[in-house]
# Entry
Amino acid sequence: MQLVVARIGRAHGIKGEVTVEVRTDEPELRLAPGAVLATDPAARGPLTIETGRVHSGRLLLRFAGVRDRSGAEELRNTLLIAEVDPDELPEDEDEYYDHQLMDLDVVTVDGTEVGRITEISHLPSQDLFVVERPDGSEVMIPFVEDIVTEIDLEEQRAVIDPPPGLIDDQAEIASGRDAEQAPKDAAAPSDAAPSEGAASDGAADARSEGDA
# Structure
């Protein structure tokens, strides 16, 4: 199958190099010298990568036959497409290609149906599953080990153990109503200092730990 692995950006210098927007987790494999890539528009390819280097945090490529700035500029906004075996897996056993995760059924550890993965969102801090629920609504599931406990490609499902409130509105919310209903003679003096370990502090800690 064909996957978009990069988009060509601006020309760099006068010797045919271009910047590229990388769209693969394995640029060292997909965008290595010698790789032959199809293109969109198709008329601009195929392109063979001749050299590659990182400059100021950006990947620069030069293609066979492209020797000057004008030739590089003509390739701007071209998509680079690699041919990938649908059964190929990343080297790390805990990693997956997007196309392998798309359309997986999502269920909780107790077997409750959640929905179907329709999109993978790659954020700087983590990846997210965009899951379409049976009623048409969407829910975001962080792709982290504590929440996504199993990916079963044979059964075409992802098993999750969501914390309260992630996939529903049943999260426990602290309320001051109990305090309001307490007997007046049990109330603390008005000038008493706040107690340590307030609920808001605990919630903030929990969120921080989950984000990490």
